[in-house]
Amino acid sequence: MTRANLLAVSVGNTRTRVGAYVDGKLVESATFINERHTRVMDSVKDAARPLRDHAEAPVVMSSVNPAVSSQMETELQGLGRPLYRVERDLPIPIGRQLDPEALVGEDRLLNAAGAFDVLKQAAVIVDAGTAMTVDLVDGAGTFHGGAILPGAQLMLDSLTQRTALLPEVELSRPTETVGHSTVEAMLSGVYYGQRGAVRELVERFADAAGQYPLVVATGGDADLLFREWDLVDRIVPDLTLMGLEVTLRVALERGREES
Ligand SMILES: Nc1ncnc2c1ncn2[C@@H]1O[C@H](COP(=O)(O)OP(=O)(O)O)[C@@H](O)[C@H]1O
Ligand SMILES: CC(C)(COP(=O)(O)O)[C@@H](O)C(=O)NCCC(=O)O
Ligand SMILES: [K+]
């Protein structure tokens, strides 16, 4: 089996995740806020340190945030490694059943590819990031799309921005279900609203799929929202990086078959 070496970089709308894979194993990973761009590049170099004896190991990059990633791509070229963008240079190895013109976020496809590579069975993948995505992969490894809704912090921010009286609130677990203050009421609405959306969508996707899928969660808010909740089978913080690793591994295996 191929054991890939790579620096995996995934640019989201809030943060960028970086992971160094040595012999197919994630040995270093880090997450950075996009706004602190110069510090991000320093930290990317730190994260790449385990690959110093693997000068041939490429950077494999994905993005759902072109403004951030176009500048970052130029800077990553400075590492002196080959740089591949998923979908442009390397196809994400996951089947798709979508509208012909559909534009799907690379993070959604990578999560699906990463999950199916390990699970080999039908799964619903929940990515609790800036936006929340809830997607269906069937038992044959085909991505069917799913649902997109505002992420938890985005819900809170939009309440603050579009009302006169609601305050700025940072996401945390509500301490009461029936909120006895404005802040607790906002936290309860968002926390149980997000969980309720996931429950409803998982049940509907299970109906559509004709089987009950595994539920896998990732993203910056997954732990806060889903920890110790039996509806979610696994929380996998590095799922998008796993998708980048399988993308390179499959491309290397195909290259070997062809030569
Ligand atoms: N240090 C942090 N900075 C920003 N957001 C954070 C931080 N730690 C946790 N979060 C949470 O992570 C969410 C973003 O998730 P993430 O997976 O990083 O998003 P994206 O993939 O869209 O960039 C935010 O809504 C926030 O609630
Ligand atoms: C849905 C998303 C905004 C999620 O981004 P994220 O919250 O992970 O930063 C992103 O995957 C995206 O821009 N997708 C393009 C449209 C689509 O997937 O259908
Ligand atoms: K997301």
TrEMBL record:
Belongs to the type III pantothenate kinase family. CDD domains: ASKHA_NBD_PanK-III. GO terms for molecular function: ATP binding; metal ion binding; pantothenate kinase activity. It is found in: Cytoplasm. Substrate binds at G105, E106, D107, R108, T182. It comes from Mucisphaera calidilacus. Keywords: ATP-binding, Coenzyme A biosynthesis, Cytoplasm, Kinase, Metal-binding, Nucleotide-binding, Potassium, Transferase. It holds the Pfam family Pan_kinase. GO terms for biological process: coenzyme A biosynthetic process. Its cofactor is K(+); NH4(+). This is Type III pantothenate kinase. It catalyses: (R)-pantothenate + ATP = (R)-4'-phosphopantothenate + ADP + H(+). One of its GO terms (cellular component) is cytoplasm. Catalyzes the phosphorylation of pantothenate (Pan), the first step in CoA biosynthesis. InterPro entries: ATPase_NBD, Type_III_PanK. Its EC number is 2.7.1.33. It is an enzyme of class 2 (transferase). The active site is at D107. K(+) binds at D127. The gene is coaX. ATP binds at S10, V11, G12, N13, T14, R15, T16, R17, T130. Homodimer. Pathway: Cofactor biosynthesis; coenzyme A biosynthesis; CoA from (R)-pantothenate: step 1/5.
